[in-house]
Amino acid sequence: MRWPEWLSALTRSATEPCHYLHEQPGSAPVPAPPRGPARSAVVALAGNPNSGKTSVFNGLTGSTQHVANFPGVTVERKEGHCRFGSWSWTVLDLPGTYSLSAYSIEEIVARDVLVEERPDLVVDVLDAANLQRNLYLATQLLELGLPMVLAANMLDVAWRRGQRLDLDELGRRLGLPVVAVAGHQDRGLERLKAALAAALEAGPAALKGAAQVDFGPLVEESLAEIGAALARLEGLPRRWLALRLLEGEARAREEVARWLPDSTGLLERIAVWQARIEHESGQRVELTLAVRRHEFIQGLIEACRPVGPDPARRHRSDVTDQLLLHRWLGLPIFLFFMYLIFQLTFSLGELPMGWMETGFSALAAWVDGHWPWPAPLLKSLVLDGILGGVGGVLIFLPNIVLLFLGLTLMEDTGYMARAAFLMDRLMQRIGLHGKSFIPLLTGFGCSIPGIMGTRVLENQRDRLLTMLVLPLMSCGARLPIYLLIIPAFFPAHLHARMLFLIYSIGVLLAVGMAKLLRISVLKGEESPFVMELPPYKLPTWKSLGTQVRLRAWLYLRKAGTLILGVSILLWAMASWPPARHDAARQTELAAARAAGDAARVQVLDNQRAEEDLRASLLGRVGQALEPVMAPLGFDWRISSSLLGAFAAKELFVAQLGVVYALGETAEGSESLRRELHSRYTPLVGFCIMLFALISTPCMSTFAVTAREAGGQRWAWFQLLGLTALAWVLTFLVFQVGSALGY
Amino acid sequence: MTLAALKPGEEALILTVSGEGAIARRMADMGVVPGQHVRMLRVAPLGDPLELQVMGYHLSLRKTEALRVQVRPLEHHA
Ligand SMILES: Nc1nc2c(ncn2[C@@H]2O[C@H](COP(=O)(O)OP(=O)(O)OP(=O)(O)O)[C@@H](O)[C@H]2O)c(=O)[nH]1
Ligand SMILES: [Mg+2]
User: Regarding the domain with residue range B3-73, which homologous superfamily does it belong to in the CATH classification?
Assistant: First the structure.
């Protein structure tokens, strides 16, 4: 897809000729897939964060795992399958790491797979525009002693920066196969697969010729001695373990102490070596090792990069940063972007939302008019339960898609990492971290990936804190509630501003709560902030399309399963048991019908429906809640609807739809809005939004928090804390508002 | 002088990095090691963190961390 010239001039264009991919005429043909008996193997994709592992993974396995332009997108191990001739591979996508001495949870996940599971083959996905840092990990991976293939990715970026790379030379010097790929375009993958097959065929024997970092005579001598002492530990990469011991890694020491009964002598020897090395180099051992590694890599790169980057040349990404991270403009621009996302979610979504609304009303009217069976209960189920419930949620699909489109744009361009950079200082003030900001922003879409995203935080307390306040970032599922309520009570010119206000309240509360927790339950030291800022990229149409489709599909699926199921259940609860109607009204109704007094019939009908609803299970639950909820301005209808929101936030809308559809004859959410408008004041409308914003995170959030925080305790704390907060704040707003006469 | 004292646009050679533990190793893994060049790109609007260029990529650090890095400024070549 081509972008307009002026747009690609702003940053690098996403499409470029792929001459760097060996795809010019005359290059060697791609080897054919192997034939023969079926074989299987486990292939792990490793590499630095943001190097394009997931892009390659999606290309190999046909998955649609989340890809975005900031470090730390993948935080779990993901599995996929790929066939190549007679090979059947289980492909593992891993979180990115800068080295194998991992600290944050997501890095430990990657490390453990590589070190403990020991896959049959490692594919190191390299960011070719960032070779030096990427090869640093490659040298460590080599020490693991696993068959390995290098996939050089982002060659287009390197190319555009004027760097030229001799991949064959790189492969020769490292003693490893190197394949050029373009992850974002699924290119070079056939060649990569052929290289994987060949490497698996060759097995670990192929590593004999692989390069090794020379750490200098003293370190090498110590490694030889430690390695010899470890000889009894079979199946472990000895050099790698020796290096970790020399670096003084606590975990390695524990492991050795466990495996070797007489390890004390060895550990003492290691201490002696450490002292000698530190004395010789004048710095800590791990720093010495890191320096040697970097020197080795520098030599390697000089040998295989005939043209390096021109240091004086400024990239488009830098120019963009000059504006977006500007001293005075940076923060206003960020706020403007956020405002724009919510404004567009509302205003661009309004038109298609209107169409969907009209469509559903027409459908309901049609069903009502053409109902073929004399089964009023079934008719009520379809009209009130399904169309009233699910339909009321579905009409907000366009807005949801727009919201996610906005967030995806922030993620794919690379602005997300900048937001963390801009906000770090503020976050530090409340005892958090710029890096917490990325999961928090993700939370605007959905709390679940946000909570998962906290894995990038190295410090467990930071992580817990971020997780606990994350539901205050209003998620996409709460959007339908606001979209229903705002137009019902507020004039059109205030709509977008109201929405922004609600989101801002959520953010401010998150800030306040974080600070509160920081000085009470989760005291702790400040943890350092070290983060890479990736270059800006123009998102490809493909990735935008995938995101939009995925999001729309998830929303539809949720509407078609959970929301549908619970709507039917709620409809049943709201229809049963029927009230006993007194005989006087029955006769009056019959009389009015006979007299043709339509207005009177309507009134009596509505009264009857109302009584039925009150007598129903749902009505009783709602009324039982009334004493607690009345001080917030909520009657039993709203209270019972808020209860359903725990299963899924959209259910509030669905349930109000059912409740009012049952009590009414007209259909459609416009009439639901009119109904709300006629029954409640704008203050109550605002209180509904406020309560829905803060209270009870949904069921799935509860479950994920329990898992990620390492115990239900924290999930309960979050659930009860937020609900209490919601109650108190809504109470204050309603009481003060009422006293002021709103 | 320390890394934190560099002005935007200035380039320097890293001499020593002090400190221990996870963060020191993390910085070393990301290329903040003696012998590397760094360039200060900018300071965030609120005064912290810093944005640096190391090994050809952009790295962001807080001033607290930058204070542990001793550097020698290089001649400015325009
Ligand atoms: N220009 C360019 N962009 C690429 C290429 N491959 C991937 N990308 C983009 O690079 C960014 C990072 O890609 P991911 O696949 O999410 O990277 P990852 O290694 O899985 O990242 P983490 O999960 O954070 O470790 C995305 O914006 C991709 O669209 C490539 O060859 N060229
Ligand atoms: Mg990934």
Answer: Ferrous iron transport protein A (FeoA) (2.30.30.90)
